[in-house]
Amino acid sequence: MGIFSGIEVLFFMLGALSTLFVFGLVWGKKAYAMRWPTVVLAGLGIALILFTVGWFASSILEGEPQAAVMGLLCFGLPVLLIFGLLRILIKKEVTVQQIKQQEV
């Protein structure tokens, strides 16, 4: 066993991912002037991604590949739906902002 076992790498990866996602969320809020429902939906998607990655990695480390795949299906597919909805909401908000800027 080396310096880092699988669980230390998992926690490091989750910490790095959560930091990147939070910075991305703050940047997206400033760049696209997202309203609070969009920010809440993005936060929910980010939390679900982190949960899915943690579930998958811990299941693999415990030697349960079937649980890992089922976790990806049960938790990963809603992430895709959430981010699809998020994309639609952001495009709609950007379009509304562009129309308001053209009126002024």
Can you put this structure into words, describing what you see?
- The structure is a single chain.
- The chain is mainly alpha-helical and 104 residues long.
- It has one domain (6-103).
- 88% of the residues lie in helices and 0% in strands.
- It has 3 helices and no strands.
- It has helices spanning 6-32, 36-61, 65-103.
- Helix 1 (6-32) runs antiparallel to helix 2.
- The radius of gyration is 18 Å and the shape is elongated.
- The model has no long low-confidence stretch (mean pLDDT 89).
SSE blueprint and pairings:
Layout: H1 6-32, H2 36-61, H3 65-103
Helix pairs in contact: 1-2, 2-3
Summarize this entry quickly:
This protein has one domain (6-103).
Note the main attributes of this structure.
104 residues, mainly alpha
Q: Give helix and strand order, one letter per element, not per position.
A: HHH
Oligomeric description of these chains = single chain
Low-confidence stretches: none
Spatial separation of the terminal alpha carbons: 65 Å
